[in-house]
Each structure stands twice: as structure tokens, then as C-alpha cells.
User: What shape does this take?
Amino acid sequence: MEQKKLAIIATKGTLDWAYPPFILASTASALGYETEVFFTFYGLQLLKKDLDLKVTPLGNPGMPMPMGMDKWFPTVLMALPGMEGMITSMMKKKMARKGVASVEELRELCQEAEVRLIACQMTVDLFDLDPASLIDGIDYAGAARFFEFAGESDVCLYI
Amino acid sequence: MTDFDELLDASGLNCPLPILRAKKALASMASGKVLHVIATDPGSVKDFESFARQTGHELMESKEEGNKFQFSIKKA
Assistant: This one.
């Protein structure tokens, strides 16, 4: 049987949106898929050596809030300084308590499993990102390179 | 309980870690050897069935005991 292929485009750079690409990529590779993830725009944050990902309750009405905060906490208060940090820290604690892997751990598992991680060269230049601030073992390439793999893939996801 | 060659305790770990750890454990085992996995993630029941169907390893046994899920997987 020919090896299946999964191509993912990761475009978001928040803690919550960091999970789908790394969970799906690592799982697919455990199932025998050849997997490639193309990180573009804010998704490049997921390749930083020092991850400082946050989750924001602002403009995110679907986010379950602890202690029923969404019931009595007006949305406008979510814009207060420190709120994002507080919510992020609560989310990380909850994840650790529930045995959900950290983003760092999932990313390492992806690299161990030889998932190819590709940083969008154009966005790296656009945001003046220093490649030294990104993890080792990744490739830098453009849209054409992505399609070379995505065009042959069995599953292609935009996240 | 079925006899096994390797034991993997994935208790407390959530999706997709039990599957990833099982894949890693199986990689270092010889064909025909049996891996016994213990997990607490209820999602792992369906996940190990799918894992076996897609990888060709045989899910010999899947059962719940107490609050633990137990799987016996024979390497293809």
C-alpha cells in the first residue's frame, strides 16, 4: 500500500490554535502518513524556540470560561491589562491537569517522527523574523514548494 | 489477561499521547510481539481500534477494568 500523505497549512499563532496542527501531524505520522506542515503568517509563532503563546477570551464567545466568568463578566473587561496572561495561565494549568501535552512536547514528537516543518520564507522576511529565533531542523520555502507536496496529498488541511 | 512482551502505562495522558507512545513502543519491538497498554483516556478505546485498522497491528484485546482501559496489541 502506498504511503498516505497529509499536508497542513498552519496560519494561527495562539495557544489554542497551536494544538490542531501538531496533534494531527503527530498522530498522522504515528498512523504511517508522510506529513508536512507549512507555517505561514501568525503560524510562524509556533516555530519559535521560546514559545510565548497566549489565548485570548476577546472576540472568542465560544471559549468556556472558568467559574462561570462568562455569565457575570462583561466582554469589555476581558480587554483589561493582564487578562490575557491570566486566562492563558489558567488554560495551561487546566491542560497540564488533564494530561494534555504541551505545545513544545507535541512539536518535539512531530520532529522525532520526521514530520517536515516548513516556514514560509515570504512571511519570515515580511515580519523580519530572525531564523536564529526559530527551532532547528526546519525548511524555508514558498507556496510552490508547498504545492509540490500538497498536490500529491491524500488529506490537506488549512488551520 | 493476555500474555505480553512489553508494558506501556499511558495513565493520565490524553489524546494523542497514548497513541504516539504506543507507536514508539511498537517501533522497537519485533513482529509478533505483544504490547500491553494501560490508559485512562476514554477516547483511547476508539483511537486504538482505528490505530490498529490503519497500521495493520492486531488489537487482540480491549477492555475496561476499574477506571483503566487495557489494550493488547500484536505487532504486525
